[in-house]
Amino acid sequence: MIAPAPPSGPVRYPRRATIFSPPHPAVSIAASLGAVIALWPCGLPRSGIISGILTALCVGIATTAALVATRRRTVRPAAAVAAVAGAAGVLVCMALVSLSWQNALRTDLGAPLVGVSWLGAAVAPATLLFTAIVSLPRITAMIGATVVAVAAGYLPAAQADPPSPPRTPTGVIYGVDDGASLPDRSRDLADRWVLAGGLDLRAVVIAVPTGSGWVDASAVAGYTNRFAGDVAILAGQYAQVPSWRAFVGDRSAAGRNAIALLDEVIGRTESRPPNRRPQIYLYGQSLGAIGAEDARVWAGAHRPGAVTETLLAGVPGDAVGDQPGPGARRVVLTNASDPIPRWAPSLIWRPSRQPQGTVVIGRPVRHPPWLPLVGFLQTSTDLLGSLDGAPGVGHRYGQEQSSSMSTTSEGSG
Prior knowledge:
Layout: H1 25-38, H2 48-69, H3 77-109, H4 116-135, H5 137-159, E1 172-175, H6 182-195, E2 203-208, H7 217-226, E3 231-236, H8 243-250, H9 253-269, E4 279-285, H10 287-302, E5 307-313, E6 329-335, E7 359-361, H11 374-382, H12 400-405
Parallel strand pairs: 1-3, 2-3, 2-4, 4-5, 5-6, 6-7
Helix pairs in contact: 1-2, 1-3, 2-4, 3-4, 4-5, 6-9, 9-10
């Protein structure tokens, strides 16, 4: 029997499977770009957890998209390794830049500084996710789909909980949305104001609440101090959901409610001589500011001269006209660090714009450089922490709201 001839070339052994195999350079470049977007300077201090989640999401989406696009392309091992090293370097550099920016913001706003633990929380999830996607793409995709499915099933159940009644500051004559028609609710609220002696007071403030019926207690205290208590404050609930849901579902509800109540109040004051009528003021914050502006514009067209002043605080971006136009004097206030007046879909392609004459109040803070899409993403993330600060920071406003009206004007019609 003749033995088989030995192989003529070198023996090739099966390649050992590795936990991490360097991907195509385009995948690493995409991941580093996702890290740059996520760690770009923001407008408010951010926890390491929030920053880590955002970075992981951006890196994960960019990595997955690039991995799909390059799944059939060959790559040189040396180039792949170099690209991974470069992506790691970009991630570290951007994390350090973000840490420095965070501490600069915190210094401006008087918040505690952060250090290495914040840095680790910001980059570790993205690093682990990148490794998992590249090494075990199918398993990672299955886990991600499961997490999304669980979250999607949880949200409707969480939103189905009955809303808690709004907390109304002391001194506000409040009308609850009890299912009655809007004219009936407005008529009842105006009647209660008259019975409480409202026609004999110096002023009446129609405070348009947020979606859930919330009225800023600081604004109430500011108006009370401004008029030395000789003022009545009226507020009528028009929704029982958070402001963002009311804004998306029916943003005109605040305006309809404010106009109906304003019409009733004006009708009651007309029974008095002009020199004995209480002055009428409109006030709104956030979603309520949209309703107050709608009422001001309506009064300018249908009841000119009836409204004395209108204050809009923390107006959502692009929600009111740039010019006040005909109508009562309008004052627009925004905290320097409030992301809500900057947020708008147009932020994707251009920097934010404030209504002409906007008065910037609150603690001064540096503003991040704007980039297309990046500015929108960062501002959207800032919304999560917009209510975490003290008055004068983010979307928290104080008693300076009412005092600013007497000294600052955006214009009059």
